Amino acid sequence: MNLSWQWQSIQNTSLYLMEFFALYFGYRKGWNLFYTNLIYWMLIGIPVAAILIYVAGIPLETIGTIILLKQPINGVLNVLIANIMVLMPIKRWLGDELDKKATLQSFIKDVLMAILLLPIFSLFFVLKENIEQQAVEQVKQNNQSFASIARYTIDDFLSSYRQAMLALARLMENPWQLSRESLQTKLLQYHSVYDGFLTMLIADETGQLQFSSPKNLIAKGTAVSDREYFIEPKKNLRPFISDVFMGRGFGNDPIVAISAPLLDEDNNFVGIVEGSLNLYQLDLLLYMPDVLSSSVLVLDNNDRVIFSSPELQLDFLQVIKPVIQEDKHLEYVVDLGVTDKLYSFANTVTRQNWQVYFLNDRQTFINQMSISFRRLMILALMVILATLLIAQLLAYYSNRPIQSLLSKFSRLSLTDINESERQQNVQAFEELQLLFDKFEDAKEKIVHYHKDAQLALTDKISAEKESDAKSELLSKVSHELRTPLNAILGQVQLLKMEDLKEEHIEQLEDIEKAGKFLVFLIEDLLLMSKSEMGELSISRHSIKLNDLIYSSLKLFDKEFGRNSIELTVDVDATQNSQVHADAKRLQQALNNLISNSIKYNKENGRVFVETKVSNNCVTISVKDTGVGIAPEYKDKVFLPFHRLSFEHSDIEGSGIGLSLASRLIHLMEGTLTFESVENKGSEFIIELPLLDDKTKVATPEQEKVISIGSLEPFQFLYIEDNKTNFMVLNAWLKKKQAGQVVGAINGNDALTKLKHDTFDFIFMDMGLPDINGRELIKKVRELGVTTPVVALTADGSEQLKEQSQSLGFDAFLTKPVDFVLVERTIYHLLLER
């Protein structure tokens, strides 16, 4: 790829032909060819090139500047190479007739210029190619990453509302046995929680509309039996998501209909519950900051526009036929067929078979590369001028002893030579030879050192950019995944506070279990990525081993009971033993081992947890009677993303638990080993250094059973731009009768409310659309607000958590929220102060 070679050949040929005539004229006059060439480009070549570029319509501020800089550089290099490799041999072959007009100093200067410039410009060429290649790869990676994030966002958005509709259908089992007032009230309450639905309705098995939210919707029509969202759930007894359409009777909003069947106790179809989901919420979910210069386009399976960034200027449901073309710079680009713009892109497909395109304007990329190359060309011109000055000085000082020696030879040719003068001449030749030898050694060392330094600098810059990009992507992916999980797990915790049937409670616990598994998976992936980048660190201190083991086992009480697995614990050997480790990371590693011993066990199996002490070391053994590990997979046990032949089984897992556990134990100067027999079971053994029994370990205080419900109500401020997150916390505080919650949708809104009202407690999201959390907490404290402020964010990075106190926060909580921790935090900050 060469951005500067976007010019007609006749224009290049014209400039170089004029350069040839200028050099010929200078040679006939006895001028130095190098200086002649510089004068030509400054007085004739560059002005003529600028005129030709203007006539050709090439933007002078981008590619045109590169062409202007590149032409004289090419000309200078061509003359330099031609002078050394062509003209000098011709002069020697023709004798001194052509050499009369050349001087020794000029010859030395030309040779030095070649020696210095050729390796430097070779390095410039390699650097230029590397910049181009890295830029193209960066564009591809960014496009693919953001396209995947957009797909996950859309899938999670639709899935959360589909699950909400399914949950409502299950809550309304045997709906016609309830009173009409009760059904209407439930529908209105559910609609207030999931206000992304424009309308919601309940129809009976014949398709007659019975209830709606808003209530006046019944007056606009009473039969939906011909609608696809009624026919499909009735036929398949499964939730259904329709194609996108414009709103009927209540505006021009883009809508998908999401419906779920209502069933009686015998699983017979008795009606549907349906919600019309407003897709304008995608404007917020798929918002692209202006600094990214990027766009998002979503098409349904009929190539109709479902969502497009504003700068694309496309209409909703407009039919678009993207055409992929080959491109000499970016390999492939896409033409949307509505403007003359081309885009670099990445595309992917959602669960609804919607096409998601992440687009970057091709011309923007070309302009960015032009700026980089322009800087490189200016640097090249500066190097040429600096090299010319150095070569001139070196040639001058190198030529002085040679001229002195030639002068002596001239005198010797006219006079007699005695032995003393002959010895002096021999000594002068030897000094001259020594001078050239030293210069050659110095030149080789300079070129070698310069090349190594440039390569090292290039590798360092590339590694730093890759590390920064990975960290930024991990932070964004973590935030995007935790946000919908917060809505799901928050709603589950709220529903569990209701008086529900045992069957419904079990269903909610299944949803909660799946959601928490996703949270653990996100944390494991982030830790694994930090480990790959060498950024994973631990904080070691003295801990009581048995307390940590019992804490881990308590987390799996329900799992042991649900899977009918007998647990045997023998940790008497470490009753008072202490280890020097990171408690959080050690418990995470132990949790992975216990979880695997349950998941891969047999029905009515057994799990043994045992500790031993020997040779100043303590071992923790987790042994099961499960399926074991086949011999051919034993060397892959600690490799990440290997499920060891369980990839296609119904056992949940990601394949990174054991790999992460091994790395965490290794950071704590311990080892993780295993023994396994196929179909008989496995035993995983953690070995850690044992601390002296005399080392004191602080005994943790017994956690108090607290409740904020019976206290005087407080005034809360929740700064959150996501409506679902606000509704979840607001609903929980209302159930706890903790007080009134005032919402602020962004940082400026919050500052306005704080100037006019007083609050007892503040929750703050860190990723607000106008002011980020770091800046907002600073502005809040500058107002003189001393109210406790808690960071409630989907960014769970350790770096942010460690910085939160110095920024001005009183506590730090991550999404998905755990209401037990929220209640304990409120109690501590408001009542124990």
Can you characterise this structure?
The strands form 6 sheets. Strands 1, 2, 3, 4, 5 and 6 form a 6-stranded antiparallel beta sheet that branches. Strands 14-16-17-19-18 form a 5-stranded mixed beta sheet. 52% of the residues lie in helices and 17% in strands. It is α+β, with helices and mostly antiparallel strands and 833 residues long. It is globular and about 125 Å long. Helix 3 packs antiparallel against helix 4, helix 4 (104-171) runs antiparallel to helix 8 and helix 4 runs parallel beside helix 9 (419-496). Mean pLDDT is 76; it is low at 1-8, 94-102 and 695-702. A hairpin with a 5-residue loop joins strand 5 and strand 6.
Q: What share of the residues lie within helices? A: 40-55%
**What is the end-to-end distance?**
66 Å
General form: globular
How is the biggest beta sheet arranged?
6 strands, antiparallel
Strand percentage lies at 15-25%
- Subunit organisation of the chains: single chain
Class computed from helices, strands and strand pairing: alpha+beta
* Mean pLDDT rating: 76
Compute the CA-based radius of gyration: 38 Å
Total beta strand runs: 24
Low-pLDDT residue intervals, each spanning 5 or more residues: 1-8, 94-102, 695-702
Q: What count of helical segments does DSSP give? A: 19
